Amino acid sequence: MSNLIEIRWHGRGGQGAKTASLLLADAAFNTGKYIQGFPEYGPERMGAPITAYNRISDDPITIHSNIYEPDFVVVVDDSLLESVDVTAGLKNTGAIVINTTKSADYLKSVLKGYSGSIYTIDARKVSMETLGKYFPNTPMLAAIVKVSGIMSDEDFVKDMEGSFKHKFAKKPEVIDGNMKAIELALKEVKKI
Amino acid sequence: MSIRERLSGNEASATAMKQINPDVVAAFPITPSTEIPQYFSTFVANGTVDTEFVAVESEHSAMSACIGAEAAGSRAMTATSANGLSLMWEMIYIASSLRLPIVMSLVNRAVSGPLNIHNDHSDAMGVRDSGWIMMFSENNQEAYDNLLMAHRIAEHKDVMLPLMVCQDGFITSHSIENIMLEEDSEVKKFVGTYKPEHYLLNRKEPIAIGPLDVQPYLFEHKAQQADAMRASKQVILDVAKDFEAWTGRKYGLFEEYKLDDAELAIVCVNSTAGTTKFVVDKLREQGIKAGLLKLRVYRPFPGEEISKALAHVKAVAVLDKSDSLNSAGGAIFTDITSSFQVHRVNVPTINYIYGIGGRDTKADDIESVYKDLEYVAKTGDLGIPYRYLGLRR
């Protein structure tokens, strides 16, 4: 299982972190991988901190626990940085991707000396420009695909088009905006 | 041709039910099994199945409706969890004693209280002596496969007992994972049509079901239930053989994972078995002879077969995700140690109560059990045989 990639999502209830983790599982599945996508169910309510997980591997995955030493962490809401230990167990060889406009100095200070790579993206800007509303999960999904290199941008874009057509069969008007959000997010994610 | 898919455990169970297309489904929603009747009611609304869906007002009524439907001569299914099963309690015994092969999907969750919606096995272990066949599932694939085999087992003329297929609430019920599905037409062919021998709606044979059964009869009827449970073991194996010929997926009463030459063995059920496999692989790389016995069929209890499979190891740990609160060990532990005694197997065996109320069971936890077993095997010192894993205090 040396090719196993483990990802942990931190978000707030209602922001779609769980949905994003399931979409990521879908996309990886479609490239032929073995996948797991699961949220950690707590006493959920809108705005409460939530965690979701992905495992992606070339081999069958048998482990069924939460993820304690992730390769990648995605933070969908930067207000969590001061209340949740988002880098707990995060491998130094991995990376964290944060939806934020905060300064590099601030991020370094709240990440308590995390020595791996730190990536940021302004998912609010991407979402407002492409969807006209604030849905951070689609841009963050694109950001983690870019950072983790689970699949090529091309494969991912092609796959998401199919997924959105299926997922939004009853709301086709949102497909274009979501695709634009993906394409823009792939460009906007930056390493600090 | 099998179909490569990705589904949650609940989606997999609902898909199996869709393909089985039973005559009646009666259910009341309860976390974490709610999605099963939810998805299934969509299939009913869309006309994908022609099942009569009974949206009852409680789980007691759900089981009662299944009993009525099966007694009438039809095939009935339901799904529930934890307190839903508790509320069915009275009817659970009625179903098995009337020899009605109802099939239930039980998505395991802690029975209150205090209130907890997360996974443990206290719901299943509470009905372990109710005369239902009980099968456990490591993942979505097994939840699906076990349901596809369920009716063939339950409705077999030597059996005629209700059957429940368990899986871990949230851990597998709400996790999206890879799965191989079978074609609708193939499932239909494998499951077959239910042709009951005796049923209420048979005008040519008027019968009564469930009348008063007093001193001269109840004992014999209970012995017949026990006979049927004993007979079901061979039927479970025969159906598994047919299933393997069809799908290539092999099942037995339990799965032996690297157990042949193992010195240290863990026994457990459901999703923890998957985590244990991960740890066994890791320990094997370090030269530690770890193995796993994953129980699939818990009722009937394959005590003789388990005793044989474990007789050669140096130490065994039985993991129970439900505490019997009896100062003597969890349900699976006491079943296994009692079988050891009966079948003259003398292997040091310890018990761990773990994962209560959804406490996450990490690979490190499982590894610590194998480390404990190494000590027990080396010294023969059992220490405290009745332990906790992952408890804070």
How many structural units, i.e. domains of chain B? 2
How many angstroms does the end-to-end distance of chain A come to? Answer: 31 Å
Helix content of chain B: 40-55%
Kindly provide the name of the CATH class of chain A. Answer: Alpha Beta
Assess the beta-strand content of chain A as a share of residues: 15-25%
Number of β-strand runs of chain B: 15
**Poorly predicted spans of chain B:** none
Assembly annotation: heterodimer
Helix content of chain A: 25-40%
Query: In the residues of chain A, how many domains can be counted?
Result: 1
Q: Describe the largest sheet of chain A.
A: 7 strands, mixed
Strand residues, percent of chain B? 15-25%
Query: What name does the CATH topology of chain A carry?
Result: Pyruvate-ferredoxin Oxidoreductase, domain 3
Q: Could you describe the largest sheet of chain B, including whether it forms a barrel?
A: 7 strands, mixed
- Over the alpha carbons, how many angstroms does the gyration radius of chain B reach? 21 Å
Tags for this model:
A: 192 residues, alpha/beta, Pyruvate-ferredoxin Oxidoreductase, domain 3, 7 strands, B: 393 residues, Rossmann fold, 2 domains, 7-stranded mixed sheet, 6-stranded mixed sheet, 15 strands
Characterization of this structure:
The complex is a heterodimer of chains A (192) and B (393). By secondary structure, chain A is α/β, with parallel strands linked by helices. Chain A has a single domain, classed as Pyruvate-ferredoxin Oxidoreductase, domain 3. Helix content of chain A is 37%, strand content 21%. Chain A has a 7-stranded mixed beta sheet with strand order 2-3-1-4-5-6-7, covered by helices on one side. The radius of gyration of chain A is 16 Å and the shape is globular. The mean pLDDT of chain A is 94. In chain B, helix 1 packs parallel to helix 2, helix 1 runs parallel beside helix 6 and helix 6 crosses helix 8. The radius of gyration of chain B is 21 Å and the shape is globular. The chains are: A alpha/beta (192), B alpha/beta (393). Chains A and B meet through helix 1 and strand 2 of A and strand 8 and helix 9 of B. Strand 2 of chain A pairs antiparallel with strand 8 of chain B, so a sheet runs across the interface.
